[in-house]
Amino acid sequence: MDTNLPVSTQPRVVIVGCGFGGLQLAKSLRDAPVQVVVVDRNNYHNFQPLLYQVATGALEADSIAYPIRKIFAGQKNFFYRMADVQRVDTASNTIHTSVGDIHYDYLVLATGSLTNFFGIESLEKNAMQIKSIPNALNLRSFIFQNFEKALLTADPDEKQALLNIVVVGGGPTGVEISGSLAEMRKHVLPKDYPELDLSKMQIILVEAGTELLGPMSVKSQQNAKRYMDELGVQVRLNTHIKGYENCRAYYSETEFIPTENLIWAAGVNGAEVPGFPAEAIARNKRINVNRCNQVVGYANVFAIGDVANMVTGEMPRGLPMLAPVAQQQAEHLADTIQRLLKGQTPADFTYKNKGVMAIVSRNKAVVDLPKGVHFSGFFGWLTWLFVHLMTLVGFRNKVVAFVDWAFSYFSSDQALRLIIRPFSRRDVKDDQGKKKAEHNTSTPQYNPTPPAIQTPA
Ligand SMILES: Cc1cc2nc3c(=O)[nH]c(=O)nc-3n(C[C@H](O)[C@H](O)[C@H](O)COP(=O)(O)OP(=O)(O)OC[C@H]3O[C@@H](n4cnc5c(N)ncnc54)[C@H](O)[C@@H]3O)c2cc1C
Question: What InterPro entries does this protein map onto (predicted)?
Fold first, then answer.
């Protein structure tokens, strides 16, 4: 298959992935004397930090996605191909994609990350994840389907498992989704499901470490824990989920939490693209890069964002997987490529940490700024809303998100709880949209022994 890209006298920069990094890089190369070719399997840019709001019915999927072609309309040196990149051939400067081969002069991998199930097959098969828009829509449908099923069953154990929601991973995503579900339990579900005894609905946030929000300040960690307690989310620290089968989330060989809803937000790996030697790949499957984002051992191949493992003196385990890291590296790489074209030496990248934040629920968020400044509560919440609204791509998306948020704030309601695409676990697909092996049915298979909520020793 021919990708029909126009032949150009200018060098071709191929960017794989149009997430935060790829999008910013292609924009920053707008006036550079290069042909920019972006390849992404999706024809939209996805604003991942708000995926959990799609999953819990607070925002429409369309509000957090934006068509790639629309973003770049009018950028003359820009070309897009919707394709899955399968392999890099560095010897011939070519990428092999699902729509044909593409030659590059400079290659930039901005492929982000994939959910890491730490090799636990039962979790990979049965847990819900939240890395993509299809994941978020599936999760939304699945949770509401389970409330409908809970109405129908007379079996108290089955009902309890359908009502229990276990969120694994106490980082920002786990905290945000747990808080959002707790809000839904308080404000939305009593109106929709007056027949269900929602006092039985348990939201259980499980974290293997000793604190929630591991990378944040102690103050923010403590505030997040207090907010979770206030919202009635059960936080279980120092607890490892080791498997998930037959609607049982096991945290030891014999102890488990019965649940039909297990959301896995406990880790990610770099979304490496095959074609590099083992020494180019670091822990977490990130690609080793130098301080100019050059893949170690290759002059014309770069990686940015989540997939890039850039080690600095301050961050010996690599820069964090955050949107600002990807965006800043992209801006810097645009400069690097232009310097290389002029025969100049590129400068090293330095990450400017402008702060981290996590929202817990309405009026509750935690914010850490540089130089030890922390704040939380209503002001933190307003800051979070403002920053996320401003960084959403597209004016329409900003307006729609603002209206949806204002509506749910003043009405204590959420408009979006349609089960448009009924979901069964048989449909589970991985982050790349590939169908996973079939596994347990959507109807729980209960062990004759009544499951009970077990308390860690
Ligand atoms: C639920 C969630 C919440 C988050 N919250 C925050 C937050 O609050 N603040 C924050 O700073 N960060 C947050 N992050 C992390 C942030 O989203 C990432 O750090 C950021 O998206 C990384 O940008 P990137 O460009 O490296 O990759 P991504 O934005 O992930 O983009 C990767 C792109 O590559 C494409 N792609 C991947 N592989 C291929 C392939 N083989 N072929 C073709 N296309 C491919 C994908 O389709 C995608 O468009 C969150 C992440 C998640 C999942």
Answer: FAD/NAD-bd_sf, FAD/NAD-binding_dom, NDH-2, NDH2-like_C
Instruction: Output 82 or 384, whichever has higher pLDDT.
Output: 82
Q: What is the pLDDT of residue 415?
A: 62
| pLDDT-based confidence at residue 230 (cuts at 50, 70, 90) | very high
- Kindly report, residue by residue over 398-423, the tens digit of the pLDDT: 888 888 877 777 776 666 667 777 77
CB-based contact 315:307 (threshold 8 Å): no
Alpha carbon separation from 201 to 62, 162, 238, 259 (Å, rounded): 30, 9, 23, 11
Number of other CB atoms surrounding residue 135 within 10 Å = 21
164-205 residue pLDDT tens: 999 999 999 999 999 999 999 998 899 999 999 999 999 999
CA angle 177, 183, 186 (to 5 degrees): 145
What pLDDT does 402 receive?
80
Distance 48 CA to ligand 1 centre (A): 6
4-9: average pLDDT: 93
Give nearest CA residue, ligand 1 atom 15: 322
Q: Ligand 1, residues 15, 102, 108, 111: which to mutate, most atoms within 8 A of Cβ?
A: 111
Using a pLDDT cut of 90, give the percent of the chain over it.
Answer: 74
Is 233:182 a contact under the CB 8 Å cutoff?
A: yes
Known catalytic residue at 176: yes
Measured in angstroms, how far is the CA atom of residue 108 from the centroid of ligand 1? 15
- Residue matched to tokens 């990610």: 268
Whether residue 302 contacts residue 109, with contact meaning beta carbons closer than 8 Å, is answered with yes
What's the pLDDT at 238?
96
All domains of the chain, ordered by start, with CATH?
Answer: 12-41+83-115+269-341 (3.50.50.60), 121-266+362-427 (3.50.50.100)
Angle between helix 218-231 and 172-183 (nearest 10): 30
Q: Which residues contact 205 (CB under 8 A, 6 or more apart)?
A: 167, 170, 174, 175, 178, 212, 228, 233, 234, 235, 236
> Is the confidence at residue 439, as pLDDT, over 60?
no
Distance 326 CA to ligand 1 centre (A): 9
- Nearest ligand 1 atom to alpha carbon 23: 25
**Closest residue CA from atom 7 of ligand 1:** 49
Q: Which residues form ligand 1's pocket by a CB distance below 6 Å?
A: 16-22, 39-42, 46, 48-49, 51-52, 84-85, 110-112, 130-131, 172-173, 271, 273, 305-307, 321-324, 326
How far the first Cα of the chain sits from its last, in Å, is 59
Between the CA of residue 131 and those of 50, 173, 203, 349, 397, what are the distances in Å?
Answer: 10, 10, 20, 27, 19
